[in-house]
Specification:
Length: 243
Amino acid sequence: MSEESPESRSAAEDDGESARVEQADERTDGADETEAVDATAADDEPESPTVEGPESALVSRVTEFDETLAEDVAALEARLAATEAELEERDERIEELESALKRSKADFKNYKKRAKKRQEEIRERATEDFVGRIVSVRDNLVRALEQDEDADIRPGVESTLEEFDRILEEENVEAIEPEPGSDVDPTRHEVLMRVDNDLPEGSVVDVYRPGYEMAGAVVREAQVTVSTGEGGDDSASAAAGEE
């Protein structure tokens, strides 16, 4: 067997080194291509959807399992928050209305008190005015009684009566004095007795005491006598007997 020369071994070693260098370059090129492909793939991947605004703990937990359901939960929470805000606003409005109602009730109660007090003051002043006018009538009567016993006081009394009637008229007071033969009004007349008379039965015969009414309201009923309707028949029978 022939021995290999040093020159042959050196050439073989150089060929092997060249082959190793080529393989290393191939591996490097392949790695670069892989990294480029991975970068392109990363750029082409769609971005995951994000929820604007802070997420609640419930939404965060649901997102781990189902992003679509998490979006629905977030929408429901937003609606719930809006509803709670609306209810709070309504509660505030109700409190305002209740407070206004209480103030209105208090104001109305105070108004009633003031109105009642005002009416009492008007009534008192009206009474004072009326008394101030009728005392002059009393003064006239006192002066009439102070006349001598033989003095004719009738003119003075008539004048005083006229003054008194004038005061009553100013106060819108009218006398109730039904005419004989008029019908009895139970709301304005008080029947004292029934008398035999030729006037129609149940009609007024005479006024015993006049009544008074003020502004359409009866102050005192008139006391009257009423006919039985039998007086006319007795007169007719007596006349026939005489004949």
